Amino acid sequence: MSAVASALDTGRFQLGDGDLEVARSVLGKEAAALRILADALDAAFTQAVALFAAAQGRVVVSGMGKSGHVARKVAATFASTGTPALFVHPAEASHGDLGMIVAGDAVLALSNSGETVELADLVAHARRFGLPLVAITGRAGSTLARAADVALLLPSTPEACPMGLAPTTSTTMQMALGDALAVALLTRRGFTATDFRTFHPGGRLGARLRRVRELMHVGEALPLASPDVPMQQALLTMTEKRFGCLGVTDGSGHLVGIVTDGDLRRAMGPDLLARRVGSIMNRAPRCIGPDALAVDALREMNAGVRPITSLFVLEGGGRAPAPPLGILHIHDLLRAGVA
Q1: Rounded distance, CA 165 to CA 167, Å?
Q2: Which fold, 17-191?
Q3: Per residue in 63-110, pLDDT tens?
Q4: For the structural domain made of 212-336, what CATH number should be given?
Q5: Buried b / exposed e across 123-146, counting CB within 10 Å, b at 16+?
Q6: pTM
Q7: Potential cystine with 132: which of 106, 138, 177, 202 (Cβ 3.0-4.6 Å)?
Q8: Cβ-contact 322, 314 below 8 angstroms
Q9: Among the residues of the chain, which ranges form H helices?
């Protein structure tokens, strides 16, 4: 038993009776603030999106303290969704990092009070070189709001901590507003799943966005036979290729059917080996196109009453009859980290 588990078991760690009540209160306050923020959005938001969309360079995001932590995340979200962006620490900006902000860039500055001293040099730099400046702040008359081309105002809502001091509700609104800007920009740009994968090649997300053609088996690996081949020979091909199925192609090389392990069980009888492939094949094989996403292939395998383990890959969106380009097995998706 671990030390923590032992402490809990002996009662040395006690959950306060009000812990859940406090947690629900915090989440309730922050959720309410987000609803108020959503209702308060106006033309300023559209203007901010337009400024960022028109920028020839990057969106430079900055903030100090907790706003700085939010700014880092907002910059990362922008960059991963098709809007080139970087975070510049406002204090470091005053000691040389202003050189990272160049003509063509736009600036997004976060400060709940709008009076963050460390932002002064960065704001002055943006004004000096005529860079678009958008502020996210909680005070309309603040220094930052007055200096900005567009000020996105956070509604006046209480912080979630009992003293009303720790940045909680305000930073939640900052984060959500940054997400809203990023998603509005990606929507305006027509950012697609293919684009998304370009910026997310690693991990499970990258795997799920891979294309079927990247994972499929081709050429001699395909288990194929014509409809008039005896099942005795067809079984040898199925065993050799080890996909648990057999594609049936006509004289033009088009896939016209499939024989699976399930078809064999349903056709089991004393004359099975003497029968022809065409007599037991399924004439409506489930297929997929080579440019479909790996996650779509997984979804197709799991669709319907009977999940399947292999898909033939056909040109033209995966509709039979068409020549088979490859075959994809569930194990290929597992190895790629999709399933």
Answers
A1: 6
A2: Rossmann fold (3.40.50)
A3: 999 999 999 999 999 998 889 999 999 999 999 899 999 999 999 999
A4: 3.10.580.10
A5: bebbeeeebbbbbbbbbeebbbbe
A6: 0.63
A7: 106
A8: yes
A9: 3-10, 19-40, 43-54, 66-80, 90-93, 120-128, 143-147, 169-189, 193-199, 203-208, 212-215, 231-241, 261-266, 277-280, 294-302, 315-318, 330-336
